[in-house]
Amino acid sequence: MERLTHAPTLARQVWSLAWPAITHMALVTLVFLMNRVMVGRYSGTGLASMQISGTLMWTVYSVFTAFSAGTLAVVARSVGAGERDRGAAAARSSLLAAAVLGLLVTVPILVANGSLLRAIFPAAEGTVIADADAYLKILLPVLPLAFVEAIAAACLQGAGDTRTPLVVAAAGNVVNVTLSALLIFGRWGLPELGVRGAAIGAAVAIAIEGVLLASVLLSRHSPLPIRKLRWGEEREALGRVMRVSVPAFLEKITYHSGYLGYVAIIGLLGSVVMASNQALVSIEAICFLSADGFGIAADAVVAQKLGAGRPDEASRAGFYAAGMAVALLSSFGLLFAAAPYLLMRAFSHDPGIVATGARSLYVAAVAQPFMAFATVVGMSLRGAGDTRTVLVVTFVCSFCVRLAATWFFAVVLGLGLVGVWLGSTADWMCRSALLGLAYARGRWRAVVV
């Protein structure tokens, strides 16, 4: 009876953290999504180039902000245990590490940009590479602020504040949409910059979001006493963060190494397929962002409940969040199946791009509930500090399933982009099975953070 009494309260707690996190993630990615829509309207070549530049930016951002998983887990566990000072120490050390790491990562990539793109995508057309190179040269310098934004958001979310990142992301999106629209098409007397205009809009939005979130976290109204400098605690706090983050970092490297191979296969299929896939990824963005939002909520609640010594509630919180995500993404899947051509026409008027992408949306529809479950359960395990299990599952599914299945369906069977999405769907099915089994076994409850 007690379990049933607490169930609605726990579900409401998950939802109260999830909806701002979902909206925040949607708004953060809307910076890139709106750029894709406008660039697609401007030029098919420009949209194809976003498959390259967008993939590289997302890969670098995801890999090198992987320690946000450790930051959120440690901050939330500390808050749940009533030790906000320890959470603040973890936040301080993580913010500093993010800024330094951002500089260390940005400079070599910026120097090697053009040759790096040609090495990864040798089959891409010269104009596509040129547009991708131009986009990255503008966006890469603000990457350190993107790292700071990710860590600051994780700190606030771990402390239970998912609404402030939402407000800041909304402000960034207003700036991005306005500035990008003016510069891509050359409105109000401004120059017509195409892809470069999209890059400028995104860069300004990222900079604003990074500065604002860091300012909120460092302010007197912060949910963490981060202004109380206790530098002796930073080493211990950073060590706790790194114990969780190193496997998460290796997981991201594993996933994105496999993903770059996946994108390289797409690059072999031609610019029409590249542009269609970029539109598909943009359409699906609302789905994986919603799953991420539920995952962030599960991550925080699981860690807080473990910190408070309530492992049973932690376990139920993860399942509640996964169930909510599956229900929502399944509804999106039905929309994909019902209106594939309408959705594709939002990104391009090219009949070849629209037709190629629309056929693959039927496969994407099937993938949604598996993606929802795997994403949320994986983030629940990260919140518990069990990032090693997620690392192993990622390796198996990214390399042994996704790459092999994509090559078989897309190239061997000649199914093209439909085969690409069959490969990714097989990956999500694999992750759902393995992560669900690991979560149900419950060994993550004993992980020390």
Present the secondary structure layout.
Layout: H1 2-42, H2 44-64, H3 67-80, H4 84-120, H5 126-139, H6 143-158, H7 163-185, H8 195-218, H9 234-267, H10 271-307, H11 311-338, H12 340-345, H13 351-383, H14 387-412, H15 417-441
Helix pairs in contact: 1-2, 1-7, 1-8, 1-10, 1-11, 2-5, 2-9, 2-10, 3-4, 3-6, 3-9, 3-10, 4-5, 4-6, 4-9, 5-8, 6-8, 7-8, 9-14, 10-11, 10-13, 11-13, 13-15, 14-15
Radius of gyration: 21 Å
Total helical segments:
15
Biggest sheet statistics: none
N- to C-terminal distance = 32 Å
Please tell me the total number of domains.
1
Estimated helix fraction: over 70%
How much β-strand is present in the residues? under 5%
Mean pLDDT: 81
Large-scale geometry: globular
Derived structural class: mainly alpha
Low-confidence stretches: 1-5
Number of strands: 0
- Compressed to H and E, one letter per element, the order equals HHHHHHHHHHHHHHH
Short description:
By secondary structure, this protein is an all-alpha fold. 84% of the residues lie in helices and 0% in strands. The longest helix is centred in the N-terminal third of the chain and has 41 residues.
Could you explain how this protein is built, in words?
The protein contains 15 helices and no strands. Mean pLDDT is 81; it is low at 1-5. It is globular. α1 runs parallel beside α11 and α2 (44-64) packs antiparallel against α9. It has 449 residues and is mostly helical.
Defining traits:
449 residues; mainly alpha; disordered N terminus
